[in-house]
């Protein structure tokens, strides 16, 4: 525990902010997925958020790392939890990303679903060794906040 706190304290300030936002989003998304219909979560997340200059300065790989590091410590933080949380975090950082949810039949013919997040064609979370076997049923990019929406919320 102390080692993790020391690692956190050694992070640059913008990355500390990214980890704190990742914690808030992963826990919030996980709780929402347990208690709310997906359409409600999708509508809420599609509202967009004002961008943060501090988060905008954090490299994309570090935003992804922050969500994945937090998700390891949050019970049942599934691929969908991570993809939604990272998509919202990237929106806060002023970056676009596309959420995809796909389905397939497993080896035992059981229904399987998987979620992943892409930015400019690169998979940020949810990379799967057999991703090509999943048929996409949802592709959704969040709208980036405009300068008008940022001013409205200020």
Record keyword descriptors for this entry.
single chain; 154 residues; alpha+beta; 4-stranded antiparallel beta sheet; 4 strands; 18% strand; disordered C terminus
Task: Report on this structure.
It is a single chain. This protein has 154 residues and is α+β, with helices and mostly antiparallel strands. The chain contains seven helices and four strands. The longest helix is centred in the first third of the chain and has 23 residues, at 13-35. The radius of gyration is 16 Å and the shape is globular. It starts with a helix and ends with a helix.
Which secondary structure elements does this structure contain, and how are they paired or packed?
Elements: H1 2-10, H2 13-35, H3 38-45, H4 53-56, H5 60-71, H6 79-92, E1 98-105, E2 111-119, E3 122-125, E4 135-141, H7 147-153
Helix pairs in contact: 2-5, 2-6, 5-6
């Amino acid at each position: 525990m102390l080692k993790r706190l020391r690692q956190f304290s050694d992070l640059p300030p913008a990355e500390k902010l990214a980890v704190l936002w990742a914690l808030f989003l992963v826990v919030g998304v996980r709780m929402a997925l347990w208690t709310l219909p997906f359409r409600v979560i999708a509508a809420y997340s599609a509202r967009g958020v004002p961008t943060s200059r501090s988060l905008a300065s954090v490299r994309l790989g570090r935003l992804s790392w922050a969500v994945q590091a937090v998700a390891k410590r949050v019970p049942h933080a599934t691929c969908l939890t991570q993809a939604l949380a990272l998509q919202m975090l990237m929106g806060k950082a002023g970056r676009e990303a596309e959420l995809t949810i796909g389905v397939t039949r497993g080896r035992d013919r059981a229904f399987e679903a998987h979620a992943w997040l892409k930015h400019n064609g690169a998979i940020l979370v949810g990379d799967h060794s057999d991703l090509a076997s999943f048929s996409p049923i949802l592709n959704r990019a969040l709208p980036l906040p405009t300068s008008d929406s940022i001013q409205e919320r200020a």
